[in-house]
Design the sequence.
C-alpha cells in the first residue's frame, strides 16, 4: 500500500460525513444539533434539575407540612425550613391568662428556602418526602444576577401547582394523584358513621 | 480468588518466626511497624504468594492511634487480597515506606502523610500532595478543627496589606483579638438538625 | 514554586523550567506539571495535584451511606455509573445485602455503556491533543450523545446519574429503553469501523504515537498501574475476569492486550475494548430476565436512609472502571455514618509512571502521553 493511503482514507471519511450532513436525517448522518434557543429538543420526563413544591388548587393549599425530613437528608444541606406557628384564636384566654392557640406549631412551612447554588440535583429530597410535596423540576434556564440574592429561592418561587406537575412529569404525577385520591376516599369512608345492617 | 487469612498467617509464622502477627477483621496486623518491609518483601517474592501488585495504601484515624492499611493482590497468580495493617501512636507516627518494594505506593503514601500526618521513612519525596506547602494541620484526623474561611488572622492581614489591598478595620481588630487570645480562626461546628 | 528540581538552572543555560499550569487545554482538568526542558527534550517532570481537592473523604464521614452516592458521581465525572457501581458493591459487601437478578443485568448494561462513553471521550481528546482539531472528538461525541440520552431517560441526569442503590438500582428499564439500547448496540459497530478507517492506519497518528511513551510490563506492575494502560503493556489483568464481581463470569468476552506499551497500543486497546463491550451488551440484552430491581429488604431504606447501620467491620470492593481499578475502602463503626471512606483512584496511581515514561521525549510527546494515560481530575484529587 502506498504511503499516505491511511490519510486519504481518513479524508474520504470526513468528506462523506460532510456531504451526508446536508442530505440525511439527524439519526443517520445528518445534522444532529438544534438551533437553540429558537428550536428546542424534547425534554425527557425524568430529567431532574432543581426541586419545587406542589400545591393543590391554590398556593395556600400547600402539601408540605414542614416535617423537616428533606432538610435533614439533603446531602449539601441546601434546604432550610421554619414551621409556621398559629396565630392566637381571637378573644380567648386560658387559666394562665395566655391567649389560646398562640405559638402552637401549625403543619405548614412559613419559611422554605432552597439555595440553588448549593443544590446538587441528587433527588434525595424527592425520594424521602412522605407527603408527596417536593419533586424535581425540569426548569434549567435559571440564570440569576446574584449568587446570594437570586439563587436563594424562597417558598413563593418554589410553589407550583399540581397542574404544572401533571404537565411536566405526567406518569409520576398521575400515579401520585391517583394514590392521594384513593387515600382521600378511604379517609372519607372511614369518617362516615357506620351504617347499620340493611334491613 | 480470595486467600484465607489464617493460611497466610500460618505460612508467615513458619517462614518469618520472629514477626509478631495478629488477625484483625480479616487482615493481618503487624505488631511491630519495623517488620512491615520484611513481610511485604516476603509476600512479593515467595513462590506461594507472588503478591506483586499493591492495590491500595490508606490511612485511618482511630482516636488513640493511626493506622496504615495495605491491600496486596497478585497479577501473576490472580489471587488476593491480603490486607496488612500497621498501627502507630499519633505523636510518633513513623512507618517504614513501601516505595522501595512497590513503586506504586509513592503517591498514596504522600496522600496518607498529607491527610493524616503519618511519616513514611524511606520515602523518596515525602511532601504534601493535595494541600499547598505551608498548610498546617492534617485534615482527615478526627480532631482536626476546620478553619473559618471568612475570618482573617494576622498573617492573612499582613499578606493582604503587603499587596496593597485594604482590610476593613473590623476584620483587622478581630484578627488582633484572636492573636491576643492565642487562638486560630476555627469554624463553628454545624448545628445538629432540629429533628 | 522555585527550586523544584535539583538541577540548578545556572549550571546549564539551555535548561528551562516550564510550568504546565493548572489552566491548560491539554491537561484534562486542573492538573499541573513542572517540566524541566533542555531544548525540547524533557529532563524532569513533576506532577502537582490538588487543585480540585474537595475532601470528599471527610464529607462522607458526616453523611449516611445513601447520601454519599451523589458524591461518588462527582469523582470520575465522565463515568458516573461506574463509580456508583463500585460504591454500591462496597456497601453491599459491608452490610451483606444481595442484589436481584434483573438489577445485576441492568448494572452490567450501565457499566458497559459507561465504558463505551469513556473510551470515546478519551480517544477523542487524545486526538485533540495530537492536533486533529475536534473532528474525531465530535464524531465520537455524536454517538456518545445517544448513550447519554439513555442515561438521562433512565436516571434523570446525563452525567451525575445517582442511579444505583444498595441492593439494586433506582428505576427499572422499560421496553423502550431496552429497544433504544439495542438500537445503539446495533449501529455502533458500523460507526467504530468508520472511526477506525479515519484513525487507525493514519500515517500521522502512527508516526506520532508508535514507540512513544513505552511502558515496560514489569515496571507497570510494580507501579500499581491498572486498566487499559496496563493491558497495553501486555499484562493480562482485568478485574472483570479475575474477581468476577457481579455477574461478569456469565458473559463471554476477550481481553485485548497490547504488545509494546506505547501510546498507539493504549489507543488501540481502547478501541478493541469498546468492541468487547458491545459483545457483552448484546449478550446482556438478550438474557435479561424479568423481576424486581431492588432487594425488598432495602426498599424501606429509600425513605429512611439513616436506618442502614452496618455492623462494625470493613470492606474493600473494587471494579474495573474504564480508567483502571476503582476501589472503595469503607470502615463502619455501627453508626449510620462511615468511620472511614477512602477511594482508590486509578487516575492518581496511574500518574506514578508519568515522569519515567516521559523522560527523553519531546514536550509535544509528553502531552500525548498524558492524554493516553487518561486521567480525570475529579478522581485524582477527590
Sequence:
Amino acid at each position: 500500500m502506498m504511503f499516505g493511503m491511511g490519510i486519504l482514507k481518513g479524508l474520504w471519511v470526513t468528506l462523506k460525513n460532510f456531504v451526508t450532513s446536508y442530505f440525511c436525517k439527524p439519526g443517520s448522518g445528518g445534522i444532529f444539533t438544534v438551533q437553540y434557543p429558537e428550536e428546542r429538543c424534547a425534554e425527557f420526563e425524568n430529567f431532574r434539575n432543581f426541586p419545587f413544591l406542589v400545591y393543590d388548587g391554590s398556593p395556600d393549599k400547600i402539601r408540605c407540612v414542614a416535617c423537616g425530613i428533606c432538610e435533614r437528608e439533603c446531602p449539601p444541606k441546601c434546604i432550610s425550613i421554619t414551621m409556621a406557628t398559629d396565630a392566637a384564636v381571637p378573644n380567648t384566654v386560658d387559666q394562665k391568662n395566655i391567649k389560646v392557640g398562640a405559638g402552637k406549631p401549625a403543619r405548614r412551612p412559613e419559611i422554605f428556602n432552597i439555595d440553588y447554588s448549593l443544590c446538587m440535583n441528587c433527588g434525595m429530597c424527592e425520594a424521602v418526602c412522605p407527603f408527596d410535596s417536593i419533586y424535581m423540576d425540569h426548569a434549567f434556564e435559571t440564570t440569576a444576577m446574584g449568587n446570594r440574592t437570586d439563587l436563594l429561592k424562597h417558598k413563593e418561587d418554589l410553589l407550583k401547582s399540581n397542574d404544572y406537575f401533571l404537565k411536566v412529569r405526567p406518569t409520576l404525577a398521575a400515579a401520585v394523584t391517583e394514590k392521594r385520591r384513593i387515600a382521600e376516599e378511604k379517609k372519607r369512608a372511614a369518617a362516615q358513621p357506620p351504617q347499620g345492617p340493611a334491613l | 480468588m480470595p486467600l484465607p487469612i489464617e493460611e497466610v498467617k500460618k505460612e508467615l509464622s513458619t517462614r518469618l518466626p520472629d514477626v509478631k502477627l495478629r488477625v484483625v477483621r480479616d487482615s493481618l496486623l503487624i505488631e511491630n511497624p519495623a517488620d512491615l518491609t520484611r513481610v511485604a518483601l516476603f509476600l512479593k517474592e515467595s513462590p506461594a504468594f507472588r503478591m506483586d501488585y499493591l492495590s491500595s495504601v490508606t490511612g485511618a484515624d482511630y482516636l488513640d492511634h493511626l493506622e496504615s492499611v495495605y491491600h496486596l493482590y497478585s497479577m501473576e497468580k490472580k489471587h488476593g487480597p491480603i490486607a496488612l495493617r500497621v498501627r502507630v501512636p499519633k505523636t510518633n507516627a513513623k512507618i517504614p515506606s513501601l516505595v522501595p518494594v512497590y513503586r506504586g505506593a509513592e503517591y498514596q503514601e504522600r496522600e496518607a502523610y498529607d491527610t493524616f500526618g503519618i511519616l513514611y521513612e524511606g520515602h523518596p519525596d515525602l511532601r504534601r500532595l493535595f494541600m499547598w506547602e505551608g498548610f498546617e494541620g492534617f485534615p482527615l484526623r478526627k480532631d482536626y478543627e476546620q478553619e473559618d474561611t471568612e475570618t482573617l488572622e494576622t498573617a492573612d492581614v499582613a499578606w493582604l496589606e503587603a499587596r496593597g489591598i485594604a482590610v476593613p478595620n473590623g476584620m483587622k481588630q478581630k484578627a488582633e483579638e484572636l492573636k491576643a487570645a492565642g487562638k486560630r480562626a476555627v469554624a463553628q461546628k454545624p448545628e445538629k438538625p432540629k429533628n | 514554586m522555585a527550586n523544584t528540581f535539583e538541577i540548578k538552572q545556572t549550571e546549564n543555560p539551555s535548561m528551562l523550567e516550564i510550568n504546565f499550569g493548572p489552566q491548560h487545554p491539554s491537561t484534562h482538568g486542573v492538573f499541573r506539571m513542572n517540566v524541566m526542558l533542555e531544548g525540547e527534550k524533557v529532563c524532569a517532570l513533576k506532577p502537582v495535584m490538588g487543585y480540585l481537592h474537595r475532601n470528599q473523604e471527610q464529607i462522607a464521614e458526616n453523611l449516611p451511606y445513601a447520601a454519599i452516592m451523589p458524591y461518588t458521581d462527582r469523582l470520575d465525572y465522565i463515568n458516573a455509573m461506574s463509580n456508583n457501581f463500585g460504591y454500591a458493591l462496597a456497601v453491599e459487601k459491608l452490610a451483606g445485602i444481595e442484589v436481584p437478578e434483573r438489577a445485576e443485568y441492568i448494572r452490567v448494561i450501565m457499566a458497559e455503556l459507561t465504558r463505551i462513553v469513556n473510551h470515546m471521550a478519551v480517544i477523542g481528546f487524545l486526538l485533540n491533543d495530537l492536533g486533529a482539531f475536534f473532528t474525531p472528538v465530535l464524531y465520537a461525541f455524536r454517538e456518545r450523545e445517544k448513550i447519554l440520552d439513555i442515561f438521562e431517560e433512565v436516571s434523570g441526569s446525563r452525567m451525575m446519574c445517582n442511579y444505583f442503590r444498595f441492593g439494586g438500582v433506582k428505576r427499572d428499564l422499560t421496553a423502550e429503553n431496552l429497544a433504544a439500547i439495542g438500537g445503539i448496540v446495533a449501529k455502533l459497530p458500523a460507526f467504530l469501523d468508520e472511526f477506525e478507517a479515519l484513525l487507525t492506519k493514519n500515517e500521522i497518528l502512527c508516526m506520532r504515537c508508535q514507540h512513544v511513551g513505552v511502558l515496560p510490563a514489569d515496571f507497570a506492575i510494580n507501579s500499581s498501574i491498572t486498566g487499559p494502560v496496563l493491558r497495553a503493556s501486555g499484562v493480562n489483568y482485568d478485574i472483570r475476569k479475575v474477581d468476577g464481581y457481579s455477574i461478569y463470569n456469565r458473559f463471554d468476552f476477550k481481553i485485548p492486550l497490547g504488545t509494546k506499551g506505547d501510546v498507539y497500543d493504549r489507543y488501540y486497546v481502547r478501541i478493541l475494548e469498546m468492541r468487547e463491550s458491545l459483545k457483552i451488551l448484546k449478550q446482556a440484552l438478550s438474557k435479561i430476565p424479568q423481576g424486581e430491581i431492588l432487594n425488598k429488604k432495602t426498599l424501606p431504606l429509600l425513605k429512611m436512609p439513616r436506618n442502614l447501620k452496618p455492623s462494625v467491620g470493613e470492606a474493600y470492593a473494587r471494579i474495573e472502571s474504564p480508567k483502571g481499578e476503582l476501589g472503595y475502602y469503607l470502615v463502619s463503626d455501627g453508626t449510620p455514618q462511615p468511620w472511614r471512606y477512602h477511594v482508590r483512584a486509578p487516575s492518581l496511581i496511574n500518574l506514578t509512571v508519568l515522569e519515567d515514561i516521559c523522560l527523553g521525549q519531546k514536550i509535544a510527546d509528553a502531552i500525548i502521553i498524558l492524554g493516553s494515560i487518561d486521567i480525570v481530575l475529579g478522581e485524582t484529587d477527590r
In short: The mean pLDDT of chain C is 89.
